[in-house]
Every structure is written in structure tokens, then in C-alpha cells.
Amino acid sequence: MKKQAKKTARTGRETQPPHRVQKAPTLKTPRLLLRPLELGDAKQIQILFPHWEIVRYLANRVPWPYPPDGALQYVRDIALPAMNRGESWHWTLRLKTAPAQMIGSISLMKSEKENRGFWMGLPWQGRGLMSEACEAVTDYWFNVLKFPVLRAPKATENGASRRISERQGMRMIAVEERDYVAGRLPGGIWEITAEEWRKRRRHRGL
Ligand SMILES: CC(C)(COP(=O)(O)OP(=O)(O)OC[C@H]1O[C@@H](n2cnc3c(N)ncnc32)[C@H](O)[C@@H]1OP(=O)(O)O)[C@@H](O)C(=O)NCCC(=O)NCCS
After folding, report:
1. Using a 6 Å cutoff on CB, does residue 44 contact ligand 1?
2. Which of 52, 150, 158, 201 is the most exposed, fewest CB within 10 Å of its CB?
3. Closest CA to ligand 1's atom 3
4. What is the distance between the alpha carbons of residues 112 and 15, in angstroms, rounded to a whole number?
5. In a domain? residue 16
6. Candidates 29, 55, 119: which one to mutate for ligand 1, based on the most atoms within 8 Å of Cβ?
């Protein structure tokens, strides 16, 4: 019993974070605004998201081919209800210089092995923007929500996503195949603990 309680607290699967935060706030980075997801964002998601280069390494629960109301269904029926239940936190990404235009998305989720997910619209990739967003939400996960560990699965082929994890000081703790939109692929579970995260931030004077 004691062992189970300890395991649950470690993974964050069933426990509430010590400081329960229901509503995600707007977060800021040097170049970005991270705005909590709203129903009205579905329109821009429907344009930016359904591209093979974006979906191929995402979990195969993403419908493909993407239906014309895929974004609305996702935002209305999955993401917003999970946010309201305090089980996930979703943000849309916007450049501070053009805040009306959504450029990507980042999410945090309570789960044993899948606590963070992200995608960036094709025109904005390769500018270091997702690295910036990851810095802000990972800090939120550990320092506001107070979870003890963050884990994320990645396909081995997904070089850009793996690079972000490496640069953030994450370690691969398990090798496993998963079903992605592109099919069953080898990959791994990446992890960083709260202690490692804080040490890294201190080291960088943040
Ligand atoms: C992963 C993703 C969000 C990265 O967004 P981004 O804004 O381009 O990321 P950044 O520019 O902050 O950083 C990307 C890093 O990966 C590197 N990179 C890009 N493509 C790469 C590749 N094919 N192989 C290895 N590294 C690569 C970049 O050089 C950069 O590293 P650096 O900072 O050391 O130069 C974007 O590629 C994407 O949306 N992919 C599809 C969705 C997805 O796979 N999400 C993750 C699921 S686990």
C-alpha cells in the first residue's frame, strides 16, 4: 500500500499536485506568449496542424487523414474537458510581435509516461521557438504544479524533438516501440526529475 502510494506520487498519474492549479495562466518567454487553449483556437489549429511533417511522430490517437472538424472535436471534446478536470494544461503559442496568429501548441498532461507534448507550425520551425516554450512549461510543471518528474515518449527518428530533450537535460530511461501516426516505430521514454531541472536552472543562473 505504502509502495503504491509512493509510486503514484512519483509518476503524478493519480495524485493531485500539491498546489492544485486549475486554470493555466498565460506564460511569457523572451519571444513568445503562451495562451491557455480556447474553443476559438480550433479554427487556426485546423489550418496549421494537419500536415504530415507535424503529425507523423505523434501518437496514433491523432486521426489521419485529419477530418475537417478534427481540431474542433479535439479542442471541444478532449482538451478543454481535460483542462477543466485539472488533468492537462494546454497552451497555444504566439509571437509577441503578432499575437493574433497562433503558431504552435504545447501541453502538459498527468500520465505515467507522457507528461508533455508539442508541435510547431511549419513556417516557424527551426528558430529555437519550441525550445523557448519548453523552458517555460517545464518550469511550470515543476515549480508551480510541483510534480516530481516529467516524462515524454519520442520516436528515435524524431531528431528535432530528441534534440530539445537533450538540450533540456533529459535522459532516456527506457527503449520501447510505440504506435505513431507513421506506424509502429522504435523510440524511448525521456525523463527529467524536479531536482535535475532545478539544478540545471541554478547552473544557468535562471
Ligand atoms: C519538434 C518541433 C516542435 C521542434 O520545433 P522547433 O521550434 O523547430 O524547435 P527548436 O527550433 O526550438 O529546436 C529544434 C532543435 O532540433 C534540431 N533539429 C531540427 N531538425 C532536426 C533533425 N532532423 N535531427 C536532429 N536535430 C534536429 C535543431 O537544430 C534544434 O537544435 P539546436 O537548438 O541545438 O540547434 C517541430 O519540429 C515539430 O512540430 N515537429 C512535429 C511535431 C512533433 O514531432 N512533436 C514532438 C512529438 S514527441
Report:
1. no
2. 52
3. 119
4. 11
5. no
6. 119
pLDDT of 11 reads: 45
Number of domains in the chain: 1
Instruction: Assign residue 161 the CATH number of its domain.
Output: 3.40.630.30
pLDDT of residue 21: 53
What are the tens digits of pLDDT across the range 21-64?
558 999 999 999 999 999 999 999 999 999 999 999 999 999 99
pLDDT per position as a tens digit, 116-130: 999 999 999 999 999
Domain that holds residue 159: 25-203
| 81 CA from centroid of ligand 1 (Å) | 29
Cα of 52 vs centre of ligand 1, distance in Å, is 15
Residue with cell 487556426: 44
Residues 116, 138: contact at Cβ < 8 Å? yes
Residue 8 located in a structural domain:
no
Residue 151 in 3-state DSSP? strand
Q: What is the pTM of this model?
A: 0.92
CB-side neighbour CA atoms (13 Å) of 160: 17
Q: Which of 131, 168, 181 to mutate to test the pocket of ligand 1 (most atoms within 8 A of CB)?
A: 131
| 188 is a domain residue | yes
Residue 73 lies in a domain: yes
Strand order of the sheet with strand 183-193? 149-155, 183-193, 171-180
